[in-house]
Amino acid sequence: MTGRDRRAVILGLAVIAAAGIVRVAPRLYGAGRARVAHAEQAAALAAAAAALAAESAALRDTLTARAGAMVRLAPALVAGETAPQANAELSAFVSGTALTHRVAIHRIAPAPDSVAGPLRRVEVRVSGEGDLDGIVRFIRAVEGSPQLLSLSHLVIEADGEMTDVQRLRFEAAVRGWSLRGEDD
Q1: What is the pTM of this model?
Q2: Is the pLDDT higher at 44 or at 139?
């Protein structure tokens, strides 16, 4: 091979090598950048997973605390899985309390209920009559009940002429709370 041929071959190899470097170098650089980006994404994902695990533990603790509070509250609620059952339980309690304190119930009717979170408000409207002592003991028994009950409305009126044993008419709304059922 002559010197000229050798130079042509070397120059050809140099051109081919330069073309190869120009084509391969960006791919190698891009692969390195992709590896760095992948590592950064993996680190961000690991940090997010750790934060989510910590938040999950905090939420689990909060849920456990709220469930415990609901269990402690349960004895103070009106029994009944549905609104009609809860209204019937409250009506029976009010009727029994009135009977115990010699108060005659003329009418007892459920009022529309409402839902607040896991609780349902239960209310009955009552009208009846009795003497002052009986009505006062009835009111104290309802509001002093171990259940969370209150009188949201109360009207007491004299019935006719004044006598030694005055008969009084009353109207009241007795309100309580029950656990909301799955059908609500």
Answers
A1: 0.60
A2: 139
Q: What angle do CA 81, 85, 89 make, to 5 degrees?
A: 115
Listed in order, strand segments (DSSP E) in the chain are: 104-110, 114-116, 119-130, 150-158, 168-179
52-65 pLDDT, tens digit per residue, is 888 887 777 777 77
31 within a domain of the structure (yes/no): yes
Tokens of 59: 């939420």
Read off the pLDDT of each residue in 32-55 and give the average, rounded to a whole number. Answer: 78
Q: Which domain holds residue 161?
A: 77-179
- Distance, in Å, from the CA atom of 101 to the CA atom of 137, rounded to the nearest integer, reads 6
Q: Do 88 and 170 have their domain in common?
A: yes
Total domain count, the chain: 2
Asked whether residue 140 is domain-assigned, the answer is yes
Contacts of 149 (CB under 8 A, 6+ apart): 78, 90, 93, 142, 143, 174, 175, 176
Which of helix, strand or coil describes residue 9?
helix
